[in-house]
Write a structure and sequence with these properties.
The chain has two domains: 71 residues, no CATH class; 265 residues, 6 Propeller (Neuraminidase), CATH 2.120.10. The protein contains four helices and 24 strands. The strands form six sheets. A four-stranded antiparallel beta sheet has the order 1-24-23-22, with no helix packed on it. Strands 2-3-4-5 form a four-stranded antiparallel beta sheet, with no helix packed on it. The two termini are 43 Å apart.
């Protein structure tokens, strides 16, 4: 019995060690990737300066820090006249009067409601996504939620109507916006507080969109592959998934491939049809692959952290949308089994948090908002659940 207990404790210790070592390795590799990107930026600056292209130098100059601008100004002055001494005389009376009248602004505190995944989800609302201008019934693929000017804004991709749509409530009145992207969009990811990126596989494009909460097209990025899933890794890098060949690529914001992740090569493909992605709180990439009916967690370098591919009652039949919460928990939808599964951060099954009994039929995209809400794309619209 002592030996059995010893083996059990050693196994638990190894599991905890592997988990923490994996997280540390992911942090290190994420840092190395950031350093690499900064080096590329420095090389780009050098190339621009050597090119002597006035427009290129001006655009680079705009991105420089304010200290650089001041340095240039001082140099110009020194060429004209030598500065012997600079003195600052403080007018305390003037300063005091100015401070009395100074209005710095207002402070708004937004408390994040963490989704309680142990609680029973309650359907709060179903957002009708059919809007004026639609030719066909909506067919939603992915969803994300932004808080724009304190307004919760749900942004979805509608395959049937070749459009990205936003839905919100402002001044107690529901509103929406519709942006046509020409061809069927697929994945969506939040870039910052009011911008998203959307994949358009058929035309090999990624479009960036500003959310005001009405939608405004910012740019169209041409890519070398047909990308489906997409997730933001850093402010300057994206991860996007391709079906042919099956892989996950790390992209710069101009669409160039920094690294291609094809785990399992050459002996076997772990990825077959990776169509939905998300980023974990530790910077890893979660891949929902309905070709191999599994969920794969990859580091940005392509190492496999875990693969969720069980059998029996917890098996996956047609995994689609995937998201990771602020606590590290994972939610993944199963389109054919009409379920939303809850996995731990290490890829262990917890429970079916939503089923067809909760009104979830053929779910696709899923995301979690900052106010303790869960959003699921269904043929009926976007189902909004609370778990408090």
């Amino acid at each position: 019995m002592i030996k059995v207990k010893e083996q059990k404790l050693l196994a638990e210790l190894k599991e905890m060690s592997d988990k923490h070592i994996g997280e540390l390795k992911a942090d290190i590799k994420s840092g190395e990737m950031s350093v690499q990107m900064y080096q590329q930026q420095a090389e780009l600056i050098d190339q621009t300066l050597q090119s002597e292209c006035d427009m290129g130098v001006y655009e680079m100059y705009q991105g420089c820090e304010a200290g650089d601008v001041e340095a240039v100004g001082v140099a110009d002055v020194k060429e004209k006249r030598q500065i012997a001494r600079i003195m600052f005389r403080q007018d305390t009376d003037k300063l005091s009067r100015a401070l009395d009248d100074l209005q710095l602004g207002e402070i708004d505190v937004l408390y994040e409601d963490v989704l309680d995944l142990k609680a029973t989800p309650v359907l709060q609302d179903t957002i009708n996504v059919r809007v004026a201008g639609d030719t066909y019934g909506a067919n939603l693929f992915d969803v994300t939620v932004l808080v724009v000017n304190d307004t919760d804004t749900v942004v979805v991709t509608d395959d049937n109507n070749n459009s990205v749509k936003s839905f919100y409530t402002r001044n107690k009145q529901p509103g929406h916006s519709r942006l046509s992207v020409g061809d069927p969009p697929w994945g969506i990811t939040m870039l910052n507080d009011n911008q998203v990126a959307v994949t358009v596989p058929d035309t090999r494009e990624i479009v960036t969109v500003q959310v005001n909460p009405d939608l405004v097209l910012l740019s169209t990025i041409k890519t070398s592959k047909h990308y489906y899933g997409i997730t933001s890794l850093t402010p300057s890098t994206l991860a996007a998934s391709s079906i042919s060949p099956p892989c996950v690529d790390i992209l710069g914001m101009t669409g160039h491939v920094l690294k291609s992740l094809c785990p399992g090569q050459p002996s076997r493909y772990i990825l077959k049809i990776p169509t939905f992605l998300c980023t974990t709180r530790t910077g890893n990439i979660l891949v929902s692959d309905w070709g191999s009916t599994c969920v794969v967690c990859l580091t940005p370098e392509g190492d496999v952290v875990f693969t969720y591919s069980p059998t029996g009652d917890t098996t996956l039949k047609y995994p689609h949308g995937i998201t990771s919460t602020s606590t590290g928990d994972i939610l993944v939808t199963d389109h054919h089994l009409h379920r939303v599964l809850h996995l731990t951060e290490s890829g262990q099954f917890v429970r079916n948090i939503l089923t067809s009994l909760d009104g979830v039929q053929y779910p696709r995209g899923v995301c979690v908002g900052g106010r303790g809400r869960m959003y699921v794309c269904t043929p009926d619209g976007v189902k909004v659940f609370t778990c408090k």
